[in-house]
User: Fold these one by one.
Assistant:
Number 1:
Amino acid sequence: MNGQAAATLIKNGTLVTASDTFAADLLIAGGRIVRIAEPAASDPVGGDVKVIDASGCYVLPGGIDAHTHLDMPFGGTTSSDDFETGTRAAAFGGTTTIIDFAIQQKGGTLRQALDTWHAKAQGKAVIDYAFHMIMTDAPDASLREMADMVREGVTSFKLFMAYPNVLLLDDQSIFKCMLRAGEIGALICMHAETGLPIDILVERALARGHTAPIYHALTRPEAAEATGTERAIALAEMAKVPVYIVHLSAQRALERVMEARDRGLPAYAETCPQYLFLDEDALRGTATDPFEGAKYVCTPPLRPSHHHDHLWRGLRNYDLQVVSTDHCPFCMKDQKILGKDSFAKVPNGMPGIETRLHLMHDAVHRGQISLNRFVEITSTAPAKIFGLYPKKGSLNIGADGDVVVWDPKQALTLSHENLHMRVDYAAYPEKTVLGAPRFVFSRGELVIDATNGAGKSAVCLGRTGRGQYIRCGTFNL
Ligand code: URP
Ligand code: ZN
Ligand code: ZN
């Protein structure tokens, strides 16, 4: 327990779950939530109990970020946060579990990929972590191996319809993976952009001398995502399996998910804060330097701002189930700069692991989602979809003591100086939000203490390497 008290009593707070908001005191002992009681009835039982005063604060289940890329090789470089810096930044933002993506090398085994990602995380993670598996190849041996992965707690497999010759899988391979997933209780996660025509658009843009970051967005149109989403859902329907669309960014892709759900199909989707708070114009950079737009090169690209309302409505109406980050940071210096002469060489991805809860809670203040929906989309729903519930994503008795004491009135500007992600810029440098963690507990251990203020005034007490690998259960919704 890192010299910490054996038990923690969080008093005077307002507990917020995906369904309820109520005043209660919460006791964590042995790393788990052991008691939730009316405030008056919950005096410490004696012994070694640390008492936290949560007056004026919400008490939330720790955030679960179901889509991160730490220490990930991409485009000739590696994402700039590793499992130490990335999970620490996540904790500062109130996230207590991440699900990162192991990547099968083309021709390699899933076991090799899993071993590689365990080695990246082992001894480094500050919070708990689980893995999805990206499959880049689907020979019979890999299809058989999917069952081994499920036994290892890797129960979701991401497939790509984009990035030909690198990550893309053809429809027959996708379909085989889906059939196999159905047999073993796994979930297919889809990067749903139809990638072959995108590559032609990219070639043509570059041939015309269109090299600036904005062409990243202009060569990956909404139609490519809409048709990818429709195809992913149709293949899953044929295979009679659920499908989860990752990083959905656009109205027409969302409409494909809505149509499927209206027909009763088990189609699920996540979006990310960048698609809710930023728009395509960010890729134009500044008046003096268009390359500043490289900060915002991610895939799918940021869309024109009229998409925002559709995505917010999708979150409110349960057509979108999850907000994850797709955290995949690259520094401007040495990394994004690789694409100075060609937008196609800008490493794809943005930082976000630390700011997700801040941004989504700010949306509660602005009336875009309810407080309970905020908890659901950032914690409970990803826990349920990826087989971590109720150990994670809940405040139930017996759940892990992953608890955030959240001060809804604490202001924080999301500037580079105030954040901890290992990247040399901020995605929302001028945005001031209301709401920040005051305390973050992971399995009952106090990992973040922000009593003296948010941002760089907060202190991380979580030891490097204390984070544990968590096995996901099979798909069970
Ligand atoms: O730009 C992105 N999204 N980078 C990470 C890879 C992916 O497709 O999720
Ligand atoms: Zn993707
Ligand atoms: Zn991703």
Number 2:
Amino acid sequence: MKTFKMVRGMRDFIPEEAEMLRLIEGKARRIAQLYGYKEIITPVVESYELLAAKTGEEVRARMYAFKDLGGRKVALRPEFTASVARLVATTMRNEPKPLRLLSIGSLYRYDEPQKGRFREFWQSNFELIGSEKPEADAEILLLTNSLMKSVGLKNYAFKIGHVGVLRGILSREGLAEETQNRALQLMDKKQYEDALSLVKDAGASEKCLTLLQKIVKVKSSNISKVLDEMKKLVENCKEAYEAVNNLAKILELVSEAQKLDITVDAGFARGLEYYTGIIFEVYVPELDIALAGGGRYDRLVELFGGEPTPAVGVAHGMDRIMLALQEQKAPLEFQGEKTVMMIPVSEALNQEALRISEILRAEGIPVEVEVMGRKVAKALEDANRRGTSYVVIVGERELKEGAVTLRNMERKEQSIVKIEELAEAIRTGPR
Ligand code: AMP
């Protein structure tokens, strides 16, 4: 018989994995509440033109793009930000600022599959729209830190840069935005030599090339030292100097609120073209791929026909966070609900078992009913294997008294309990 394989780059989440992913999602939703972010739900399919506008060559080349049956050129979203910016530029254009928006869902990129890299992946995405202030950038960093902390990740660290520094240097040479984008994309892939020769061919001066060569090497977790070094290098370039000052202000705000593990990397660039300010990623030592990435994008909403609207955001790769937790052997601590297995001692009592199950569920207690026709001893074994907290045994004799047997699986203790007191006994009983 023919068996079917999954499409390359896709993945299934079996129950334990799906539960973990949803737990991470739950944590992200809680962070959204704590910081005042409201959810929006945008479509998986968007117009190709919208998605291609500013995602950068890297992502653009890997889009799942196709013509729909109506002949429209569409694509599966490779990221959330374009959809959010579209919404803010149109339907939500008159909403008072700031807007704090949360998106959660799956994204699609035709990446080369490898550990932690899939063609369908999951993000929680936070956007703070309408503020150009460093407090907004700081908030995005802080909420990302809160999420990483709340899922129980250890030793995670932020890598931070500012595209204003590199763009400032390139703009002063009069390089077109297109050239700048290409140079930054090469730098994103650490192809600094190629980036430099591209900039050179575009007419940049020797002085500029020397400066670029020096600045891309500036990198340290000693924040004040690295900022001083950057300032010294770009002191004659106003735009780049202001960018360093902006970065300094954001980092100062963050450090006053929380202690974060930060490395500033002046040569850090990200593939997405729309960034205009701070950019950052989050890493753990166990993986060499980023768990989250974000930055400031002040011109995107305007590009999509909206008012000039500064914005900053972050995308957390939920399945990557899950992988990092597995690597760290730090499974999410989940104090699940107490669960119940309902076992009728004979077939004649199946109906009673269903009725009592419904009473418990109406009280908010999860119940699984024995449906395999197993004898009590076998059914108890199964309940044990499943980690069920309580078993309710429905027997003729107890039922005559309006009662059942309630067994705590962990303690191996059981007692006779009246049906009307059953829910309370489970709720208040030991786990
Ligand atoms: P980006 O939009 O490229 O900045 O990505 C933001 C985050 O999404 C990354 O830091 C990853 O955690 C996650 N991510 C991006 N691409 C993939 C992928 N192919 N598979 C899994 N996660 C991804």
